[in-house]
Structures are given as structure tokens and as C-alpha cells.
């Protein structure tokens, strides 16, 4: 996994701008901890930071291909293409000659063979840029689900791009301006495709290519979800899912560096781990390495909340024993989560504040610890989205709320009746953002996009719509978070459930099949029933853990008190002082009311973000 950055300006000689390109590239140093490279020629400048996974010795970037001793194309690439060996064989048969073993060269030569349409042949997670010297065009490509990030800013005669917003902000042509639309995106838990928090940036849409030439910019779709008839019966569907998972995990075990799995003890990660363990035994006789995260005394003193019904660690340990994995328990304590430098690093990794607080911090620390052992980790993300794992998918009131069901769920929780993370902000600001109208309008747009099959009954149609908006408006938030917090340490996080073949298959699988036994994720449970312990199969979904130590909540209150006492706090004009005072005067007596403390987390992070990014609010 890597970081990419670049600049094309047909009206400027960029050979004089090498220091600026270097600054852009340096912001992505954590994404690429093994190497760094620049390529500058005329009106084009490309930068790359590399975490080596495939062909560590031969895959340096930017990578150039020559014909007759002259360069014809150069690439900067972030990601993994899991079918690169098959493509390499096909390309060799078509006359392409390779000088490395890397998947990067396979991607570049695929472009030379098929142009931007090569994206349709690539299977994996990727974001890359190719400068075609023959056509004087830049081609940007992003994977089908948007697992790997790619941001850009249009220029009068070109474009700037980078893996993260910070790379663009390192260029003086881009200012950290945030308008109303950006603040709506910041506070929303339903993300608009392509929308960035910063006014002058866009995210390349998943499944899209962007071609930039002297004649202008062309945005093309190469993949989107489609509604197709589901021809398998229930048993055939279960068999198909198992077959796909076996093949997907096998391909994603490809690496020239140490690899592991992130094991939570839920059915999603346990299934991936069990299949990975099976393949490792068969192929090389080795044990799979597994990691689980917990907190001091968390399992012993665990108290259920509205979505967490059991601690992860005991279940993960049971799966590890069952599979005989090389199991590592990552133990975090409250001081780890409260460390101000760590919390700042989490904010800087994401280039924006979030409400998730210690969930993000523990995720960040987990990736840091895993990286000391492994460079690649397989995770269970995306299973809930495709198999139907969220509780709000089963509540008729939430499904009929005429808004994203998870948003309806937020406002019905005692800790966030006004929306997640917004309670402490000025009501005038909230009226200007008008999140209710924003969500309603956005929801209608999303529903209008959802592809459907002919002849669907009302329930199947509704649940297919829910599946579509979940994949396109909810999932991007999780994928972005996972990418930033893992790549902050140069850890490559692979997500087998995001394989587009499985996503397409499950999108077209009837909801009645997905819930055939009256439970969530029925098909996944049935597909891996022989691989994981019964206790895990029967376990109710429990999200990433949060600390339940009262000391953490007290720390948040202390920091909020300090914020409002400091007249130089940049967030102060945007907070509701009465709401802040009420929060400070009535601290929660229940340490694990994590939904309530999200409001404090957001206010604190918003303050830090304004200060560190010198944000210009154009509202």
C-alpha cells in the first residue's frame, strides 16, 4: 500500500515546482514507509510513497515503461490487484514484456494494452494515476467500491490529486476552505459520493476513471451495481457464497511480507480467519497470525450498551484456539486512549474531526501494534453491508422513516436526539446546515439511483434500496476510516468481503434468503458453519469496543471545560454555551454512555481541526 500525489498543469513548467511536489508527497510518508520517489517533466509532476508488499526489490515507483528507448507512460499506484498473475500471463501472450514481478507493472501494461478500460479487468483495491506521454493525458482510476482513496482539485489548465486531502493542502494553490456543504458532509453519517469536506476538492467516485488532457476533463463510469435475476436456490446460494469466499481469501493471501488477520470474535472476521487458516495449512503448513484488541479489565467488567452485548476478546480467543492460530492480544489502557499526541495523530490521519473518539484512537493504536508484526491484515469489514447485519435493517419503524435508517436510529437514541455529535454546537449554525433537509433530499436522490429487478414485491424492493444506500452512503465512511487509521502506520488492510463479485452476487440475492432462519447474516452463518465455533455463529453482532473507564469520560469533560475557558479557542463561536454548560454541570454517571460523549468528542476535535488546519469557514 502506498500514497500517491501529482500535479498536471498545461500552462506551467512544473520542473520549477519540485519542492512543492516534494511537500505534497511528504504528507503521505506514513502511507509509504519503505521508499519514496518523484517524477517531474514539463507540465507533469508525480510523487509516490511506498509500503512494499509485492516484489519489494523491483516495484519502486513512479514506474515508467519505455518503447524504443523512450518513455511512453508512467504510473503512481496505491493498492493491490489480486488477479495480477493471471493478467500478467495474458499480457505476455499479447506481446507485453515485463522487467519486475510487481502488480504495479501489470497495471501499467494493462493500461498500455487496453487504455482506461483496463480498470474493468482489474480485481482488487486500488487508486492510481497514469501519465500517457503519447497522448499527453493523465488518467485517474479508483476501485469499484472506493476502498482506496483518491482526491483531486481542478485547476484552470490541469489538476492536482492525492491519496488524502493533506497532500492537496500542501500545495499553495489549495486553501483549507470549508463551506456549508463541507460542514454538512462533516456532520453527516450518510456521505455524498464524491463530496469532500474541503470546498475545492472532490473525491474520485468509486468505479470511475477521470481523464485529464489539453481538451478538458472526462469522467467515465466503468462499474456500478446492477440488478440481475438471482437464479440459485437457497442451498445453491450458500454453496456459491462459500466458494466465492474460498477463492477471494486465497487470492488475498498473496504477499511477499508478513500477513495476519484482525480477529474480533464475530462471525465476519472469524469466517475470514478460518478460511485463511485453512489455506495457510494446505499451502505452506503454517499457522495464520491473528490479532484482537481489548482494554484493561474490559472483558471482566464489561457492561452491555445499546449495541454491544458481549466483549470481543473471549470469543476471539476461542476462535484462535479452535483454529490453532498464532494469536496476539493487544491490550490498551485508558492512558493510551487519553494521550493527547495520539489523539492529535488520529485527527491528522483523517484530515477531519469525527464523533468516534476512542473508537478511532483504539483502531489507530491497534494498527500501530499490528504493524510491528505484519504489513498486511485481512479484516471483516463490509460483511454487514452485503449480508444484512445491522439492527436498523430489521426495524420497520426505521425502514419506514423516509430517511436513511441509520440516521433515524441515531435520533431515537437517548444520547443523540438531535443527531450524532451535534448537541453542543450553536443552534444558529445547525439551522443554517439544516441537516434534516440535507438528509431527506440526499435520501431521495440515493433511492432514485438504486437499481431494481422487475417484479419485485414491496418488501424485496425496499430491502434492495436499503442495501444500495448502505453500500453507497454508509460504507464509504467506514472504508475511509479504516484506510486512514491503518495507513497512518503503513499497514495494508485488505477487505475480502469488498470483492466486487461477492458484492454483486449478494446485492441480487433476495432478502428472504438473507434472513431465511430469522436472523441477521443467515447466509454467511450457513456458509461457514463447519469452520467456526457454534458460540461465534450464535453471537449477536457487537461493534468495535469502546472504553468503559470513567476516567476517560472525566478527561473529556476536563478538556471541554478548558476549551470554553480559553477565549482563543477557535471553536468557541460555533458552540452553544448553554448546552456546554449543562453538559459540564451534569456529567454522565454511566461511563459507557458512548453515544452521549460523542458530542464532546466532536466539539473537542472540531476545535483542534480549526486550529491545526487553519480552516477558513465560508458559511
From TrEMBL:
GO cellular component, one term: cytosol
Catalytic reaction equation(s): L-aspartate + L-glutamine + ATP + H2O = L-asparagine + L-glutamate + AMP + diphosphate + H(+)
Tree of life domain: Bacteria
Keyword Amino-acid biosynthesis: yes
Record-annotated site: Important for beta-aspartyl-AMP intermediate formation: 381
Domain Glutamine amidotransferase type-2: 2-215
Gene Ontology biological process: asparagine biosynthetic process
Keyword Heme applies: no
GO molecular function: asparagine synthase (glutamine-hydrolyzing) activity; ATP binding
UniProt keyword list: Amino-acid biosynthesis, Asparagine biosynthesis, ATP-binding, Glutamine amidotransferase, Nucleotide-binding
Coiled coil: none
NCBIfam families: asn_synth_AEB
Similarity comment: family membership: Belongs to the asparagine synthetase family.
Protein name as annotated: asparagine synthase (glutamine-hydrolyzing)
Amino acid at each position: 500500500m502506498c500514497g500517491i500525489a501529482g500535479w498536471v498543469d498545461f500552462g506551467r513548467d512544473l520542473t520549477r515546482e519540485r519542492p512543492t511536489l516534494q511537500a505534497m508527497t511528504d504528507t503521505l510518508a506514513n502511507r509509504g514507509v519503505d521508499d519514496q520517489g518523484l517524477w517531474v517533466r514539463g507540465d507533469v509532476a508525480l510523487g509516490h510513497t511506498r509500503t512494499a508488499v509485492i516484489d519489494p526489490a523491483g516495484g519502486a515507483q513512479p514506474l515508467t515503461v519505455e518503447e524504443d528507448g523512450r518513455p511512453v507512460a508512467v504510473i503512481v499506484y496505491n493498492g493491490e490487484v489480486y488477479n495480477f498473475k493471471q493478467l500478467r500471463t495474458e499480457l505476455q501472450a499479447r506481446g507485453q514484456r515485463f522487467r519486475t514481478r510487481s502488480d504495479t507493472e501489470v497495471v501499467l501494461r494493462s493500461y498500455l494494452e487496453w487504455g482506461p478500460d483496463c480498470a474493468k479487468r482489474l480485481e482488487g483495491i486500488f487508486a492510481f494515476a497514469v501519465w500517457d506521454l503519447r497522448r499527453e493525458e493523465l488518467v485517474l482510476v479508483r476501485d469499484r467500491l472506493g476502498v482506496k482513496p483518491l482526491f483531486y482539485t481542478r485547476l484552470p489548465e490541469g489538476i492536482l490529486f492525492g491519496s488524502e486531502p493533506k497532500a492537496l493542502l500542501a500545495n499553495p494553490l489549495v486553501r483549507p476552505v470549508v463551506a456549508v456543504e463541507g460542514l454538512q458532509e462533516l456532520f453527516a453519517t450518510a456521505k455524498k459520493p464524491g463530496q469532500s469536506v474541503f470546498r475545492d476538492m472532490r473525491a474520485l467516485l468509486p468505479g470511475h476513471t477521470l481523464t485529464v488532457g489539453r481538451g478538458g476533463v472526462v469522467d467515465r463510469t466503468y462499474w456500478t451495481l446492477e440488478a440481475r435475476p438471482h437464479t440459485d436456490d437457497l442451498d445453491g446460494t450458500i454453496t456459491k457464497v462459500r466458494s466465492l469466499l474460498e477463492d477471494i481469501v486465497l487470492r488475498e493471501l498473496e504477499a511477499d511480507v508478513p500477513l495476519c488477520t484482525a480477529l474480533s470474535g464475530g462471525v465476519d472476521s472469524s469466517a475470514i480467519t478460518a478460511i485463511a487458516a485453512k489455506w495457510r495449512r494446505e499451502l505452506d503448513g503454517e499457522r495464520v497470525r491473528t490479532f484482537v484488541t481489548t482494554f484493561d479489565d474490559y472483558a471482566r467488567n464489561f457492561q452491555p450498551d445499546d449495541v454491544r452485548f458481549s466483549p470481543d476478546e473471549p470469543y476471539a480467543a476461542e476462535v484462535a484456539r479452535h483454529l490453532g492460530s498464532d494469536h496476539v492480544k493487544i491490550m490498551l489502557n485508558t492512558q493510551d486512549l487519553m494521550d493527547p499526541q495520539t489523539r492529535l495523530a488520529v485527527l491528522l490521519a483523517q484530515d477531519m474531526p469525527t464523533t468516534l473518539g476512542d473508537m478511532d484512537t483504539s483502531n489507530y493504536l491497534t494498527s500501530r501494534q499490528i504493524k510491528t508484526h505484519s504489513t498486511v491484515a485481512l479484516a471483516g469489514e463490509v460483511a454487514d453491508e452485503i449480508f444484512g447485519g445491522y439492527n436498523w435493517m430489521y426495524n420497520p419503524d426505521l425502514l419506514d422513516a423516509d430517511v436513511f435508517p441509520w440516521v433515524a436510529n441515531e435520533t431515537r437514541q437517548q444520547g443523540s436526539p438531535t443527531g450524532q455529535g451535534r448537541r453542543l454546537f450553536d443552534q444558529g449554525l445547525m439551522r443554517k446546515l439544516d441537516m434534516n433537509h440535507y438528509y431527506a433530499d440526499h435520501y431521495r436522490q440515493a433511492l432514485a439511483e438504486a437499481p431494481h429487478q422487475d417484479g419485485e414485491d414491496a418488501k424485496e424492493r425496499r430491502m434492495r434500496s436499503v442495501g444500495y444506500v448502505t453500500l453507497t452512503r454508509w460504507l464509504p465512511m467506514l472504508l475511509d476510516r479504516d484506510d486512514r487509521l491503518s495507513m497512518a502506520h503503513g499497514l495494508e488492510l485488505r477487505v475480502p468481503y469488498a470483492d466486487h463479485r461477492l458484492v454483486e452476487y449478494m446485492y441480487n440475492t433476495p432478502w428472504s434468503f438473507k434472513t431465511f432462519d430469522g436472523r441477521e447474516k443467515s447466509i454467511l452463518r450457513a456458509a461457514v458453519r463447519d469452520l467456526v465455533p457454534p458460540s461465534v455463529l450464535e453471537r449477536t453482532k457487537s461493534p468495535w469496543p469502546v472504553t468503559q473507564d470513567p476516567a476517560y469520560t472525566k478527561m473529556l469533560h476536563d478538556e471541554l471545560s478548558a476549551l470554553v475557558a480559553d477565549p482563543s479557542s477557535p471553536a468557541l463561536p460555533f458552540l452553544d454555551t448553554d448546552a456546554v454548560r449543562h453538559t459540564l454541570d451534569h456529567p454522565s454517571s454511566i461511563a459507557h454512555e458512548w453515544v452521549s460523549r460523542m458530542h464532546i468528542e466532536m466539539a473537542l476535535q472540531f476545535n483542534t481541526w480549526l486550529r491545526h488546519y487553519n480552516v477558513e469557514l465560508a458559511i
